[in-house]
Amino acid sequence: MRRPTLVTPASIVGEFDQEKQRCRDIAADVLTVVKPVNEMHKRKGQEAVLHTVCFMEFLVGV
User: 38-61 pLDDT, tens per residue?
Assistant: First the structure.
């Protein structure tokens, strides 16, 4: 029968910190990839608003 190996609390905390950092790195990578897509959608939205405002100004003038 084997006895369980004891580990120090510091080693467990170190593993937790590494896992947390790994998750942060993954999130940063995802945001880096998604940012251009968000900018593209933002520009399309601004263009749609501009067209709507121009159309409304046209209707007011009629």
Answer: 888 888 889 999 999 999 999 998
Cα–Cα distances in angstroms (integers) from residue 15 to residues 24, 25, 26, 42, 52, in the given order: 14, 15, 17, 39, 54
**Cα 62 to Cα 50: distance, rounded to the nearest angstrom:** 19
Q: Where are the domains of the chain?
A: 23-62
Looking at residue 7, the DSSP 8-state letter turns out to be -
Q: Does the predicted TM-score (pTM) go above 0.90?
A: no
Instruction: Please give the structure tokens belonging to residue 16.
Output: 């937790």
